[in-house]
Amino acid sequence: MAVVLYDTTLRDGTQREGLSVSAEDKLRIVARLDDLGMRYIEGGFPGANPKDTEFFERARGLELACATLTAFGSTCHKDTLAGDDAGIRALVATGCKALCIFGKAWDLHVTETLQTTLEENVRMVTDSVAFLKAEGREVFFDAEHFFDGYKHNAGYAIEVCKAAAAAGADAVVLCDTNGGSLPHEVLRAVNAVRMSLDVPLGIHAHNDAGCAVANSLLAVDAGCTHVQGTMNGYGERAGNADLTAIIPALVLKMDDDCLSRDQLKLLTEVSHFVAETANISPNPYQPYVGASAFAHKGGVHASASDRLQGAYEHVDPGWVGNLARVVVSELAGRASITMKAHELGIDLSGDEKTAGKVLDAIKELEHKGYSFEAADGTLEIMLRKETDTYEPFFRLESFRVIAEKREDGKVQTEATIKLHVAGQRYIATAEGNGPVNALDKALRIAIGRFYPHLADIALTDFKVRVLDEKKGTGAVTRVLIESSDREKSWGTVGVSENIIEASWEALVDSVEYGLSHPRPDAPEVQESDDLGGS
């Protein structure tokens, strides 16, 4: 029996600190999760806030290929019948075919948080599940704080689960709500419940002890057939179980059919889509879907991977829609340089002399403070210079930057650039909110008329790293710039004791890389006739 995947990114995931998505964002994410093949997508807590109310209203009649949209809520309140409970009625009003409700499985929470009796809590669970089943809905019961409850009063925790099962719950989900359980504790508890209940079991793990993925996979091995989690592990505190790690582990390592192999190939794309929609930078070190998940930096690793595919990869990166890549650094060997050049469209195969020269240059530059791991743009320009395939788009004569602090407290920066482009000399001046911004504006004024594609290129990130703090203001500075033309992104690097010079170096590489890789729909380069010079 294939594991049933239940995504709670749009409810539990949004409890992550600093994460916020609109109702429109939620609808877009639902569509992508459906493409991925998710069986259930939890949309939120109807009635809890205007955003979730809007989402469920707009989601009515939503046609999904694989997924069933699910609404989340709690059992009825104490001393209240399920049919009279406002929260239960709000769940039914969503029109969702599947509903998930949580109830307390830890006696401490029953008596202290709910301030009711253990018997009344069991009644609340029974009445709520039975009422929703009578409404013709598929009902999942989340046994909240189950594992902590099991440690303190195993008999009562199991009794709550039995009550939900007897009332008709389609699955009883065991929740590690505080996220502190260890794998052997989860295994012991799941085995005990499995011996007591004849209903599908599920697992809902949080990651406070760093065990959410391991706990989820071990629960499956022990008999759970329903797995709840979030994309990228988003969630409150340390997050939830990360479905981007759980899913490939199930499919590729545990031979489970929760997703097809074709659907699995969408995993990296969907992971990054969710991250970008939530305005969170994708984690490059994330297992399976991170940009560094299949990156080879050491020369021995890269060389072995080139000769024997998979020598240093636990799965084929293409199976999860990711890519293997070579990271060039001072640790690289000639094989790494050749492979990286091929990745960048430069053929160095059989040219050990050039590969050796590039390798020596990289080691020397990294000794001075350069880092090419996040600067493929600079690395490609360097490779093209070494192979005589580099053609500069302009030649700098000089630049000057003036910063002026005025009596009113305002600081104004002005940059003047003198350069040669298309056989003519040009001078351009621009003001900016800082030296790099002013230089960028002046450069665009000077060469933008020749290269219309420049308008599509934007600086998206700017990082400064002081390399030798002991030298104070005279320390060497490394500047990393990330740029994008709305279709692709690239990084460039500059190093100097002068932060403006380092910034200029990275800026020029950024512009030249972008201009040498125009988008397919980019406008043609303009001729230089009668455009005027200096």
What is the number of beta strands?
A: 16
The portion of residues assigned to helices is 25-40%
Biggest sheet strand order reads 1-2-3-4-5-6-7-8
Number of helices: 17
> Biggest sheet: strands, sense, closure?
8 strands, parallel, barrel
By CATH, the topology of the largest domain is: TIM Barrel
CATH architecture of the largest domain: Alpha-Beta Barrel
What spatial form do the alpha-carbon principal axes imply? elongated
For the record, give the distance between the C-alpha atoms at the N and C termini, rounded to a whole number.
75 Å
Strand content: 15-25%
Rg measurement, Å: 29 Å
Top keywords for this entry?
eight-stranded parallel β-barrel, 38% helix, 16 strands, three-stranded antiparallel sheet, disordered C terminus, 534 residues, Double Stranded RNA Binding Domain, single chain, TIM Barrel, alpha/beta
What does the model show?
The model is unreliable at 299-305 and 528-534 (pLDDT under 50). This protein has an eight-stranded parallel barrel, surrounded by eight helices. The chain is built from 17 helices and 16 strands. By secondary structure, it is of the alpha/beta class. The radius of gyration is 29 Å and the shape is elongated. It folds into two domains: 4-277, Aldolase class I (TIM Barrel), CATH 3.20.20.70; 395-516, Alpha-isopropylmalate synthase LeuA, regulatory domain (Double Stranded RNA Binding Domain, 2-Layer Sandwich).
